[in-house]
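Replying to the earlier thread about multi-chain prediction with a worked example.

Input:
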Amino acid sequence: MNKFLVKNLFDKAKLVMTPTRDGYGKGLVKAGEKDERVVVLCADLAESTRSLWFKEKYPKRFIEVGVAEQNMATIAAGMANYGKIPFISSYATFSPGRNNEQIRTTISLNNLSVKIAGAHAGVSVGPDGATHQALEDMALMRVQPNMVVISPCDAIEAEKATFAAAFNGKPTYIRLAREKTPVFTTEAMPFEIGKAIVLRQGKDVTIIACGPLVYEALLAAEKLEKEGIDAEVINNHTIKPLDKKTLLASVKKTGAVVTVEEHQIMGGMGSAVAEVLVQNILVPMELIGMQDKFGQSGTPDELLNFFGLTHPFIVKAVKKVIFRRGSGQVNKKIK
Amino acid sequence: MEIHEEQIKKLEEMANTMRQDLIEMLLKAGSGHTAGPLGMADIFCAFYFHILNHKPENPFWEERDRLILSNGHICPIRYVAMARSGYFPVAELATLRKFGTRLQGHPEREKLPGVETTSGPLGSGLGQAAGIAYAALMDTHSTGSGQAKKFKVYCLMSDGEQDAGNIWESAMFAGKNKLHNLIAVMDRNNIQITGMTEDIMPLESLRAKYEAFNWHVIEVNGNNISEFINAIEEAKAIFEKPTIIIAHTIPGKGIKEIEFDFNWHGKAPNKEEAKKFLHELRTIGGKIKSEHE
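Result:
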């Protein structure tokens, strides 16, 4: 096992479980410590988005705007226009959902260094139900010119991503999750915006994942190994700009792709990868994600299984693409 | 800042010149907004030639007053004021709305230095102005070398855009934080794109609404330059809250036949109309002879 991944990777009992929003809170404090220009705005969700941790440390640089996400975007645009580095925190359904046009005009078109943190993304939000499960946020953000889109895979990466976003000088969206998910990467794993990470090398198929489901991709690779299929797993944390070089190099090697995300298939990370692939190389591809459906109440595990986002579904999809590729040796192993 | 009658006269002459520039540029562009820019010519003239502390040759000067235009569609009159005060050559006005121009149909910060913010979609200017004002106050209050930020943040908005919820979210924010360095100016011309404001969505009482949101409210005749300048002086002396100047203006001001007509909100004059309008402006409504004829 490589040094980017924790020991006991597949021993769930020994894994530390932390929500990615905690990494955001930590990253904010770290960025705030480094640079006085960092300010944090919140729309009455300081505890839940973990921007509270920044507020406790730097109360004068924390700005409460009330339940007013549109205003939050415009205030932040003004502050960045002046020279601050604002982070705006809310649930992703509201920001960048409700305030999408304000983000488009006052942040992206103005090309201002505002950071949008969308918490509670994905169906794994659980009991709150469909209204609070953002499944289209990456689509909304990645179609805006100038905007950078990041979906960290665990709390450690979320902290690194938050810190990096503070200093990239660009409008940036960071996607966060509510529920506790495995902390499976280590401090040693490098993080650079726009640089995908090969977590596991393989030659038979490329599994490209983002967000906490990267862990499911690793679980799938582990199962596949037992069946003689050697999967490469890529942590594609930056959806925009996409790391074409790393992705294409892997796909050219394996000739088959599965993407995995907790987001609508339409307009999401998998779509972004497909856009690059079809213009460069023709390979069979399967996209794991939400199939044009809203979520619903339930436990995160129930929902992830119901919507087909867990490792057994990834394993199935891998077998499908390998079958379609028609490579003799690997094909024989598939029933 | 006391202002003499002679200065006012000069400003009025400049406002007339600006209106002529505006008609000429709209004719060349073939589309754009006429009524609002004409009604706001006096206020833009007052800002660029008297009120603003700015350096046209250095639009990024840090201590400049910020003039945020929320209702971006009236940008032609801002472009005219900028050109006449030295931000760029007057000849460039002819490029309005043309391919490759810096003078976009709706103003863009990344295209033309000095416009401060990109605007057009209504309701977002007050929030951005409040954000700048808040950030400036933060730095003023912070310890260390933090020198007081003396610049003012002005936000020009329309009355029609008071329909937008974002405006009231921002008004609440400014009131809560006592942003006394923020001075909003509302172009109260009673028209919007498809009719009269009070028919489309009644706005009154605007004074009572802003007072309830903890703003200081001043009402003036927005086509009277000296009255407007006095209102700005009053606003600068208020330190407990933000101020809004409700400027009652006449849409289409300066050209009798289109004054108050909402049909002129979103269209540009044709050749014949432009000729007639320019004649009216050059002769100040027939009072003097035009050297052009």
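The mean pLDDT of chain B is 94.

Feel free to reuse this layout for your own posts.
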